[in-house]
Amino acid sequence: MTSTKxxxxxVLLTGLIALIVVSVLIFNVFYFSTYYGFVQxxxxxxxxxxxxxxxxxxFGIILGRSQPPEKWTDQxxxxxxxxxxxxxxxxxxxxxxxxxxxxxxxxxxxVKSHINNIYKKTEVKDRKELIKITKRK
Length: 137
Hints:
Largest sheet: 2 strands, antiparallel
Shape: rod-shaped
Strand order of the largest sheet: 1-2
Structural class: mainly alpha
Number of helices: 6
Mean pLDDT: 75
Number of domains: 2
Number of strands: 2
Radius of gyration: 28 Å
């Protein structure tokens, strides 16, 4: 695992150095016109601009592929807390949010926050789905 990370960092560093060298070359070829200070593009600049754009795009593709996408939550690494488990049990019993808040001596907004966290961790949309997946287990 470490060797692949070192290789990807080496590719990243090499690409960055190449990008800097090419950009320095390109921008040294550009010259400012005497009229209003606009940058003029002539045929030499046009020829150098295309490889530069190709390098930038390929560098972006390399960066995009270097790290795999991560999930927001991983159920194995982010299990329900004790309080969230209590709230799930009360939801299964058919309690409403205000009843859960009264029984646990917390604010209604706290219960709603816990329920939203439970939905995210279990990847469900509502109480019915939550009850279905808890009955399967």
